[in-house]
């Protein structure tokens, strides 16, 4: 996934990086506020009870994450109305707390602007993973978070094999959530996480250009820790996320 992220930077360069560090700061404010949005309450549930820790332990023991997954199907059919609703709700939530962050969000991804769904599809294209899949969306979200927190500048080691291993982990993780048993719940979570992954990456690129990468990484690190996952103590491998 990470090897495809440079495409997003190219597409959004004119939106995020063309004017000044003030615009870069806006994007940093956006993503930091974004992490306190309503989506966090859902991802927090998914990461609770040391679910990822358990998945890592099994990976270290040589167990296949694929064997841990149930037969829940996390593929879903994309729905344009739902995608628009997800964008609108996140933008409104941002704007209610931070007018500049909300406006920056709508300027980039609001009605008539760039389509986050297409950008996400580009992110996962080379991995061969299905884009409209909640486990893929969570895997991408965690992978971008890992890149940000660990300041990974060279992502060539993040191969399709690594992507698929991480997606097997997230499939096992999501399978433990009893609320994700209906197509509506799965598609809603998938779209929210797709949007989160795209916005997180855009914020990271803006922070890099604005000379704020250390501050940004630190903030995102703390946000993931608040969800029970310390991304500084793991590494991304062909077995997915494992402890260092």
What does this structure look like?
This protein has 244 residues and is mainly alpha-helical. It has one domain. The protein is 66% helix and 3% strand. The protein has twelve helices and two strands. Strands 1-2 form a two-stranded antiparallel ribbon. A hairpin with a 2-residue loop joins strand 1 and strand 2. Helix 1 packs across helix 11 and helix 2 crosses helix 7. It starts with a helix and ends with a strand. About 16% of the residues have low confidence. Keywords: Signal. It holds the Pfam family DUF6683. It comes from Mucilaginibacter aquatilis. This is DUF4197 family protein.
The portion of residues assigned to helices is 55-70%
Task: State Rg.
Answer: 17 Å
What is the average per-residue confidence, as pLDDT, rounded to a whole number? 76
Structural class estimated from helices and strands: mainly alpha
The overall number of domains is 1
Number of helices: 12
Instruction: Give the overall form.
Output: globular
- Element-level helix/strand string: HHHHHHHHHHHHEE
Terminal Cα span: 21 Å
Uncertain runs are 4-24, 38-42, 47-51, 62-70
The count of DSSP E runs of length 2 or more, i.e. the number of strands, is 2
Largest sheet: 2 strands, antiparallel
Tell me the fraction of residues in β-strands, as a range: under 5%
